[in-house]
Design brief:
Elements: E1 7-10, H1 20-35, E2 39-44, H2 56-66, E3 76-77, H3 82-94, E4 98-101, H4 105-110, E5 128-131, E6 138-143, E7 147-152, H5 153-156, E8 161-163, H6 171-181, E9 186-190, H7 197-207, E10 213-217, E11 220-221, H8 242-252, H9 266-276, E12 287-288, H10 290-295
Parallel strand pairs: 1-2, 2-3, 9-10, 11-12
Antiparallel strand pairs: 4-5, 5-8, 6-7
Helix pairs in contact: 1-8, 1-9, 3-6, 6-7
Length: 302
């Protein structure tokens, strides 16, 4: 590998405990970082206080430790980084790439749901700030799992929000600023964020920031076919049987069975898994995991 040393990250939102889909993303990103001899960072994306659950961030960190997914360096918290986001926003406003938007949600919905021009009937005291997406904007990138991805950002997304009308920072801006500041070279996460990646690449270009490599891992589904993170019936992953859960997630990542000695402890499993992990074996399609999880006494929710 040429260029900067591999640096990956796991960035959960503290809206509840970690679940199977979250742990799959954490495991996949950790394995690739360790396989490359690189670093693996943890960042708590706590910029949406209404959704934050008290104590969830520490519980998530404790769960990662229980599964042997140890991180490098201090944990970063987005709630402490507003000044970086503000500086980036001011740059975009100064060059006209970002603009104030007085449209309400209902006005955007009535105009087709994709913002291409302001249709607000009157100014608002609390406008949102959006990125001005050029007409014909086409973003393409190669994903480590999904291959070549192309998105017409103007038609499929439109002018997207950087700072909400309630003053809270939008995920797209915060994640781009943080990944650049932390020197992230590889973003490995769930496929639910695949369609966000073109927006982030567009923002990186607007701010003159590097674009990491990407690999989006398959989502996990419950028996009802719904993404586990959206299923009210699913339960958090338990720390009581970490090795059983790791074996299940390894299988969901499409990996070949490990040698027998890897079944003896979490440490042995992770050592063998880091050596044997192959990104080209990761499936595109989600797996149904609830029944298998309950058979190993592991309750799951992504």
């Amino acid at each position: 590998m040429t260029g900067p040393r591999y640096r990956g990250r796991f960035a959960p939102s503290p809206s509840g405990p970690l679940h199977a889909g979250s742990m799959l993303a954490a495991l996949g990103s950790w394995l690739l970082a360790r396989q490359a001899g690189g670093e693996w960072l943890v960042r708590i994306e706590d910029i949406d206080p209404p959704r934050e659950v008290p104590g969830a961030a520490q519980a998530q960190l404790d769960m990662l430790a229980a599964f042997g997914l140890l991180h490098d360096g201090p944990v970063e918290y987005q709630s402490r980084r507003s000044h970086f986001y503000q500086a980036a926003l001011e740059r975009l406003l100064a060059d006209g790439t970002a603009f104030e938007c007085h449209c309400s949600r209902s006005e955007v919905a009535a105009a087709g749901g994709i913002h291409r021009r302001c249709v607000a009937r009157r100014p608002r005291p609390d406008p949102a700030i959006r990125l001005r997406v050029p007409d014909g904007c086409r973003i393409a990138f190669d994903d480590g799992v999904h291959g070549h991805i192309v998105q017409r950002v103007d038609l499929e997304v439109g002018d997207f929000v950087l700072r909400r009308s309630d003053g809270l920072w939008a995920y797209q801006l915060a994640v781009v600023v943080d990944d650049a500041d932390q020197g992230i070279t590889d973003v490995v996460r769930g496929a639910d964020l695949l369609d966000s990646t073109p927006r982030q690449i567009l923002l990186q270009r607007a701010l003159g920031l590097p674009t990491p490599r990407h690999a989006h891992l398959p989502l996990l589904l419950g028996a009802d076919g719904r993404k586990l993170s959206k299923s009210e019936a699913a339960l958090p992953v338990s720390a009581d049987h970490p090795l059983a859960t790791l074996r299940l997630l390894w299988d969901c990542l499409g990996q070949a069975p490990l040698a027998g000695h890897a079944a003896h402890s979490v440490e042995e499993f992770l050592r063998a898994a880091a050596a044997g992990f192959r990104l080209d074996r990761v499936p595109l399609q989600a797996r149904h995991v609830c029944a298998a999880a309950h058979n190993t006494n592991v309750s799951t929710r992504a």
